[in-house]
Design a protein that fits this description.
The complex is a heterodimer of chains A (381) and B (349). Chain A contains 17 helices and 13 strands. With 381 residues, chain A is an alpha/beta fold. In chain A, the strands form 4 sheets. A 5-stranded parallel beta sheet of chain A has the order 2-1-7-8-9. In chain A, strand 1, helix 2 and strand 2 form a beta-alpha-beta unit. In chain A, helix 2 runs parallel beside helix 16 and helix 6 packs parallel to helix 7. Chain B is 30% helix and 22% strand. Classes of the chains: A alpha/beta (381), B alpha+beta (349). Chains A and B meet through helix 1 and helix 16 of A and helix 8 and strand 13 of B.
């Protein structure tokens, strides 16, 4: 496949791996957090860890929107969907996310809630147009990448004078989450030496928002694409920065990412959304200015205002270690629930639900490696 | 067959629709069966008009298999629910190494369904059955109220005869056995997805829906003693079938991504839709597990058959008490090829 295969070439991968092995100084460690679940998935799917020397290790970060969505928000969505007048439109990845009391959107649908799985925000607009007697709510979720399509839906709803469409907004922002991870008092224990940032977020935001993070924490950040060779190259770039004692923001994904990003998308987002004072992240807790909501001018399209949703605070299952996994404090395999009562078929925690979640990725693609390291400690030294 | 004119005015096969009387067991039901199904399937066993088909039982071991078809959309590039219902059940019978003998077909039709579409489906079934040399010898029709079905659901049951001495079963794979795939994967699932109303995309790809018993007969002829397992990787794709075999045989499996044939169109569509072709359904492919000494001859025989032209050995059975199916990726790392969690593509067959 043109424009794909060249980024999955095994020969090139081995060449980069050999360079990483040659340049990584044997006596030091290189622990890199790939922030984004897309990278976690690529690392597991292509077996990238098999190609890295033992002192270069990847720590899986919290950049999986399904994983960081607190249980309470799913509870709120289910409550909305159970209203007889509401049709809830959602991306399929949210369907099986466990809510409280053993519930999920999938089970709510089986119990009669009108929940439709859609591929695009335009599908939700279409449903609102063709079924004017239904209150159509789009369950919006995701980082900066998926926010512009939601903005487009809002714009279209306005243009078409739709009075039965609204957005349950759960869009979150990347830089505050990276800051929270690097800033955590226990970061000393994780010892993250560098960060791989997601390229698709930076196609929208540019690389500029990472400058202060790299400077404040003296950690190198490389914005990278999602093909396996992109990830390998980003790892090499991080190794070189550390060897040269640099902490710059570098752009591996120069084929699309610029420093300033997509100004049209940024303007659309700024017009319709504002930062919430605070938002609860699963695993990271309340983070200031870390999420978006609709501006007052679009209040009629905001499901939270329209249906007077008061956020439900729901505690996670106490045995679930998703919180620590999301911050890189615990490896999936170290959680007591991993592979016992928690698996992709019956997930207890959010990291096991999305294929981009650290636990699901390791379970699905990498758990054969656990045999070899069955007696290893909780975290790489 | 010349149909006796016994129902007065014929069915309006151009504009007519199924109504509840077609399922009520009265004259309308009989007319529907006569003018659509018996006219299309045309064989003496069905023509007898009994509630069952009678046939002599040959000596030896017989197999029976049944499968329900609920595919959406009903018509897709390379086939429709009718041809699929014939091919799918023939293949389930054939995976025992058996020669399929007869099929039974049962229809649940939704009120309001166009008779023209039903006839088109019946003709497609008849053609598929004729090409396969397997007659549809008995059947049933039911009608449900509008909104209680989705056009038509079909269940087919097949019986077949196993050649003497053959004992294929998914619990017979042994470490060192070779895993052989008959051709490219994912064609059916992607062809069907391309016609989903909310997902339509342009592709020339056709479903691979086909009856595999001819290919199977050739494989049995060449390497009967060395064949241990055969499976057609339908729902859940290659990944599901390999996991089933590993689990039932209490072995592992190691395959090589570079050797798995995937058409460029399938790879591109999967890339776009975020699907893994290993999990996408096939309707005209088989996996064979065979003793290593017979593998080359088996692959050569498969390649000489039109439905096995791209046959290739993709890996081997390993000793593994955890029954992992593992894959060496083209990229150079290893990964598990796990069971499918949840539903990747609903209603694909």
């Amino acid at each position: 496949m043109k424009h794909i295969d060249e980024y999955r070439d095994g020969g090139l991968a081995r060449a980069i791996a050999a360079t990483i092995t040659r340049e990584a100084v044997a006596r030091r460690h290189y622990h890199f957090m790939e922030f984004c679940g897309g990278h976690t998935h690529a690392i597991s799917r292509y077996g990238i860890e098999d190609l890295l020397p033992a002192n270069v290790r990847m720590v899986h970060g919290p950049g999986c929107p399904v994983c960081v969505l607190p249980v309470g928000r799913i509870d709120d969505a289910i409550a909305l969907a159970m209203r007889p007048d509401v049709t809830l439109c959602t991306y399929a990845d949210l369907m099986r996310v466990p809510a409280s009391a053993g519930r999920s959107l999938l089970r709510a649908k089986a119990a009669g809630a009108d929940i439709r799985m859609i591929y695009s925000t335009l599908d939700a607009i279409h449903i609102a147009e063709t079924e004017p007697h239904r209150e159509v709510v789009f369950f919006a979720i995701g980082f900066e990448t998926t926010t512009p399509p939601t903005a487009l839906a809002i714009k279209l709803a306005r243009q078409k004078h739709l009075t039965n469409f609204s957005v349950f907004c759960n869009h979150v922002l990347t830089p505050p989450a990276i800051r929270a991870v690097l800033d955590a008092p226990d970061n000393a224990a994780i010892r993250i030496d560098g960060v791989i940032g997601p390229a698709h977020v930076s196609t929208i935001t540019g690389t500029a928002p990472y400058q202060s993070l790299a400077a404040d924490f003296a950690k190198p950040i490389v914005v990278a694409g999602f093909e396996p060779l992109d990830v390998m190259q980003a790892i090499l770039m991080l190794v070189r920065q550390i060897n040269e004692a640099r902490h710059d923001v570098e752009n591996q994904y120069a084929r699309l990412v610029t420093a300033r990003g997509n100004m049209i998308a940024q303007l659309a987002m700024a017009e319709m959304f504002e930062r919430r004072a605070s938002f609860a992240w699963r695993g990271l807790g309340e983070l200031p200015h870390s999420a978006l909501r609709l501006r007052a001018a679009y209040a009629d399209l905001d499901a939270e205002r329209r249906f007077a949703i008061t956020p439900t605070a729901t505690a996670d299952n106490p045995a679930c270690e998703c919180g620590d996994v999301l911050r890189g404090l615990t490896r999936p395999v170290d959680c007591k629930l991993f592979g016992t009562s928690c698996s992709p078929e019956s997930p207890m925690g959010s990291c096991m639900v999305s294929p981009e979640g650290a636990c699901a990725a390791h379970w699905t693609y990498g758990r054969f490696r656990d045999r070899a390291r069955a007696h290893a400690g909780r975290l790489p030294a | 067959m010349r149909l006796a004119r016994r129902h007065g005015r014929r069915l309006d096969l151009r504009h007519g629709r199924i109504d509840l009387s077609h399922g009520a067991g009265g004259r309308a039901s009989a007319q529907l069966v006569d003018e659509i199904f018996r006219a299309a399937f045309d064989n003496p066993m069905l023509d007898r008009g009994d509630d069952q088909a009678a046939f002599d039982v040959p000596a030896g071991q017989m197999v029976i298999s049944t499968d329900g078809y609920v595919i959406s959309p009903l018509f897709f590039p390379g086939g429709d629910i009718g041809s699929l219902a014939v091919h799918g059940t023939i293949n389930d019978v054939a995976m025992a190494g058996a020669r399929p003998l007869h099929l039974a077909a049962s229809y649940i039709i939704e009120e309001g369904f166009f008779l023209a579409d039903l006839q088109r489906i019946a003709h497609s079934m008849a053609r598929a059955a004729r090409e396969a040399g397997v007659a549809i010898v008995t059947g049933d029709t039911k009608v449900v109220e509008r909104g209680k079905g989705d056009g038509v659901f079909i269940t087919t049951t097949g019986v077949g005869l196993v050649p003497p001495g053959l004992g294929l079963s998914a619990d017979r794979a042994q470490p060192g056995d070779v895993v052989i795939l008959s051709g490219s994967i994912g064609d059916h699932g992607v062809a069907v997805m391309s016609k989903r109303h909310n997902l339509g995309f342009e592709t020339d790809l056709l479903s691979d829906s086909a009856a595999l018993h001819g290919l199977v007969a050739e494989m049995v002829r060449v390497a009967a003693g060395a064949l241990r397992v055969m499976r057609d990787p339908t729902r859940g794709g290659l990944a599901a079938s390999l996991n089933e075999i590993a689990q039932q045989s209490r072995t592992g499996c190691l395959i090589d991504e570079d050797r798995i044939p995937i058409r460029a169109e399938v790879a591109a569509a999967c890339e776009l839709l975020g699907l893994d072709p290993l999990y996408v359904a096939n309707e005209g492919k088989l996996i064979a597990i065979a003793a290593p000494e017979a593998a080359d001859a088996l692959v050569a025989a498969m390649r000489a058959h039109p439905l096995g032209r791209d046959a290739v050995a993709i890996g081997e059975i390993t000793a593994d008490d955890q029954c992992f199916v593992q894959m060496m990726t083209s990229f150079g790392g290893g990964r598990i090829v796990d069971w499918l969690a949840g539903e990747q593509l609903p209603r694909i067959c």
